[in-house]
Amino acid sequence: MKPVNIGILGLGTVGRGTVEVLRGNAAEIARRLGRGVNIFMVSTRDEAKARALCPDGTRITADPFEVVRHPEVDIVVELFGGTGIAKELVFEAVRHGKHIVTANKKLLAEHGGELFALAEKHNVMVQFEAAVAGGIPIIKALREGLAANRIRSIAGIINGTSNFILSEMREKGSAFADVLKEAQRLGYAEADPTFDIEGHDAGHKITIMSALAFGTPVNFSACYLEGISKLDSRDIKYAEELGYRIKLLGITRRSEKGIELRVHPTLLPESRLLANVNGVMNAVRVNADMVGETLFYGAGAGALPTASAVVADIIDTSRLIAADSGQRVPSLAFQPAQVQAQTMLPMDEITSSYYLRVQAEDKPGVLGQIAGLLAAQNVSIEALIQKGVLDGRTAEIVILTHSTVEKHVKAAIAAIETLGTVREKVVMIRMESLHD
Ligand code: HSE
């Protein structure tokens, strides 16, 4: 059978990795696929670099539009990233009948609806395994492996940069800013780390997984984002003393009220596997009605792990090119006509338990007042400890609550902050038991 022709847009880290995987494992890939994968064309500004990497016959162009419009390209592999030129190129490629393999989570999370509709119209596939959790085949698992289930929830450590920072803060007791500098020195964090540490990257990934899990349109604007930059290492230490680890989690959960979609630092019981995923590694926990709990662990970034996902998509797409579109796995896991918008819960309506830290005057009755204000909102206390007197007059009180609706805990916090004895804003961090 004639090899499938691919056109690669971008020879950065993942692009180079993709060429390396395709060339290094060419024989094994052909054994699986029954045909070869031909790197027909590559778009990059650095022709010399491309020439050194790619097979002799590969055409190299500085104009990416040549790739997406070339009649002999079957699959466009988009590795530019972002929603500028990459968006234009992907849409143009679809209009030219090209199948798409992309690692571009931002494009999918922010413009997925438009893109999938256009792809359906032009009868082409859009594959994006590499967009979520790098080398972990979580998209395949959600779309196919768990297809027998009604999925209840997903919770994932899906940003390696943040996980590295939190792991270091816990192990060394260091401040956020110091660990961030170290992460930048080691190349784990970008010079501008905002996208990773403020939860945007994790938000894009959990938004995509939420759509696949529940059969809803991708809706990044409904995703609540709270990053790790304001975390105080004291809270990491207190959490640890109470038997918890703090992780940046992407969470999506379906309840009778609607769908929760959120990214924020989260206390997890240290006995949970997810709490023990450290450094730059990623892990995604899926809870579904028939299979129960499943956990997927692996490298969430890096040239070869991400390329492993890109190439798996190239293989899948190559197999299905000739198939009737009805036999293909739908991009969003559900038949396009079955993808339905559902109520997305605002944060006030989510259900969680909470870690609260209050700095208050150390005198009789203060603890009682605080407990009373929580009780007034029907927030039940699971544990309460006084963490010591800082200056002889101020006590630091750490409270863990039982599960409650967020608006109630926020109302209690607002009331606590009005107390004359309370010195600073209350610190609130959400907690998950991961039982559902
Ligand atoms: N920057 C991401 C991370 C990897 O830190 O996990 C690419 O999505």
Automatic annotation (TrEMBL):
Where does this protein hold L-homoserine?
Answer: 190
Q: What GO molecular functions are on record for this protein?
A: homoserine dehydrogenase activity; NADP binding
Q: Which residues form the ACT domain?
A: 355-430
| Enzyme category, top tier | oxidoreductase
- Matching Gene3D superfamilies: 3.30.70.260, Dihydrodipicolinate Reductase, domain 2, NAD(P)-binding Rossmann-like Domain
Identify the Pfam families for this entry: ACT (PF01842), Homoserine_dh (PF00742), NAD_binding_3 (PF03447)
Q: Which residues form a coiled coil?
A: none
- Please tell me where NADPH binds in this chain: 105
Catalytic residues (UniProt): 205 (proton donor)
Which of UniProt's keywords are assigned here?
Answer: Amino-acid biosynthesis, Methionine biosynthesis, NADP, Oxidoreductase, Threonine biosynthesis
Which EC number(s) does UniProt give? Answer: 1.1.1.3
* GO term, biological process aspect, one: methionine biosynthetic process
What is the name of the protein in this document? Homoserine dehydrogenase
